[in-house]
Amino acid sequence: MELIRSLFLHNKTLANHIMQPGGVMTLFRPVEPGFHPRLQLDYTQQMPVRSLKRSFILEFSWLAVDPDGQRA
User: DSSP H helical segments within 1-72, as ranges?
Assistant: First the structure.
């Protein structure tokens, strides 16, 4: 559990949601998994605006949309 937290969870909101089955999917409107030349994620109200910094958005989009990120 602590290894997962140190590798992937640098944000409290993400940490709380990722530990629940399908929890990450409640933070944004789902998109087709895979490569997107220009990805736009629409976040739900459960995602705090203060969390939306560039580094978090890059990490979150990898976990949420990329097949390798989803498996990780």
Answer: 2-8, 12-18, 54-65, 67-71
Which residues, including other chains, have CB under 8 Å from residue 14's CB and lie 6 or more apart? 8, 24, 27, 51, 56, 60, 63
Q: Which two tokens stand for residue 71?
A: 């498996």
Comparing CA positions, the residue from 63, 71, 65, 1 lying closest to residue 36 is 65
Q: What band does 10 get if pLDDT is binned at 50, 70 and 90?
A: low
* Interatomic CA distance for residues 30 and 41, integer angstroms: 8
Which residues fall within 8 angstroms of residue 25, CB to CB, at 6 or more apart? 64
